[in-house]
Amino acid sequence: MAQTPSFSDRPRILVVGGGYVGLxxxxxxxxKVKAHGGIVTLVDPLPYMTYQPFLPEVAGGNIEARHAVxxxxxxxxxTELITGKVTGVxxxxxxxxxxxxxxxxxxxxxxxxxxxxxGAITRTFPIEGLAEEGIGxxxxxxxxxxxxxxLERIETGSMMQPGPERDRALTFVVVGGxxxxxxxxxxMEDLARAAVKKNPRLExxxxxxxxxxxxxxxxxxxxxxxxxxxxxxxxxxxxxxxLNTSLASAKGGRLKLINMPDKSPADEFETDTLVWTAGVQAxxxxxxxxxxxxxxxxxxxxxxxxxxxxxxxxxxAWAAGDVSAVPDLSGGGVGGFCVPNAQHAVRQAKxxxxxxxxxxxxxxxxxxxxHKNLGAVAGFGQYKGVANIMGFGMRGLPAWLAHRGYxxxxxxxxxxxxxxxxxxxxxxxxxxxxxxxxxxxxxxxAFREAAAPPAKKQEAAPSxxxxxxxxxxxxxxxx
Length: 479
Description:
By secondary structure, the chain is of the alpha/beta class. The chain is 33% helix and 24% strand. The strands form seven sheets. An eight-stranded mixed beta sheet has the order 7-6-5-2-1-8-21-20. The chain has a five-stranded parallel beta sheet with strand order 10-17-11-12-13. A three-stranded antiparallel beta sheet has the order 14-15-16. The protein is globular, with a radius of gyration of 28 Å.
């Protein structure tokens, strides 16, 4: 594979992935590296970074989908951007293999320093029918699809007669009781409630929401008392919360649930909407590199965010975020490592940019990543939430305000912050937007129908019976 000549030949810092870590590292380094005669290059299959904590609000109609993403081209003006996937890295030769998104031939890209920031993907299990019937809550496209699908099912279900088909259309299931699952289900329930109020053919009691969680409790990031309150809160809103329960099959949209741990049957019903939020895993691209990885498929890193093998740190190799195993020096991480969340990714990215600059250009000093956990916040729809901030627990309206305040500040780039806040203000004034967008999966349908020539009307051929009756009449007349 030959090097593509259209890219810069300056000393390159290659950033693999344009999520939290990739965006912040490139944004903070791009001008500084350029001033030293180098170039920051970011490779990602998408032209934007997604602020994933806002996906439930996108699914719930509180935030416009484009406002929950940050354009690379708009904000990384001094960064060399490549839309594609890094499919392999050979650090011994300082080259990465890039597969362009346009389908053209893969090529090798040389670098001086590399940042592995490929993030995480949805973790699934070999459950029959899950791949065909389920959808995640990890991308902006999934959040939009869940929103439009929910509104379409409610509208369609309202036209059906009571029965199994109507029950299936109006049943919505979320698997996974972590933050992502609870927030997604709560926002979906709020959206459904708002949609039903505008539809005289339905009542809220016609809609069924089910949460499936394999563990005995939900949301391990909050206290057990708060977790119990969340379960009570959801059940008070008509949500069926099934703890110690797992999904065994989803074939054809017929869900079979089993009890944990004895695997006995728990429930069986049909649905058209199955949202899977039961965990994430490190991006498997790291398996196609010569970097050391741990048993969970994460790149091994030290507290300075250097990729580290058995013989010590590798020169010019860095990692942060969900794809990396970074020691948690605060002592609070699961297994001694930082948990995969946005709070760590943003903080690590800023330190990583400083460390690379200090190591490469001698400005400042390389420091270790040590954080103070601020706590956790979650929103459950309009004016509802739970929070555990610095050991202080909140719920209801104060927690909801804390949730919006924190994530409003954490949203990257000021112009995006203002767009999100603008959505919230409009929602407060005019209420939740329940407009369904049609035909997103087939946008050319209307044009094809308009462009297709109308079918010609064909004259009906005389029936055999009619011919026989005419022959009979003539025979009778002669007689």
